[in-house]
Amino acid sequence: MRKIYISFLFVIFLVLTAQHKAAAQCTPGAPLTFTNSSAVAIPTGPGVITSTITVSGAPAYLYDLNVQTFIQHTFASDLDITIQSPSGKVVTLTTDNGAGNDDVFNGTVWDDNANPGGQVPYTTNNGVVTDHSFTNLTVAAPRTGRASRRFCR
Fold this sequence. Notes:
Elements: E1 4-7, E2 14-20, E3 32-36, E4 47-55, E5 62-70, E6 79-84, E7 90-95, E8 106-111, E9 145-152
Parallel strand pairs: 1-4
Antiparallel strand pairs: 1-9, 2-3, 2-5, 4-9, 5-8, 6-9
């Protein structure tokens, strides 16, 4: 088995959506969307691929964070996918999942507020998409700069 570590985008398009809280009130503000649509090829052997999304204009606090991946790959369990904040916090989205299925993460939305009681088959996934915790993903940290998405194969 070949393992490739990719930082978010090889033949993929990533959408990072952040809804923020206003400091004075606890209601979410307007959603902010940041994208990187540059295709990055997945190598044939082990390696690390990084794709960077530049985030600017975000407030000090995040209310919600969703990530959408468009990854085309013929053996999903080759991939380890993480995101990294500008402060260096790394959160794992998935490792070794999807078996030998094609394009499992093509259009996947990673949502920390997903419904854990979602029903299979997931034509629209209303359940947890990851076996990893998003704990502390939205803790106070600088919200501008360059955030990396990492995929490992």
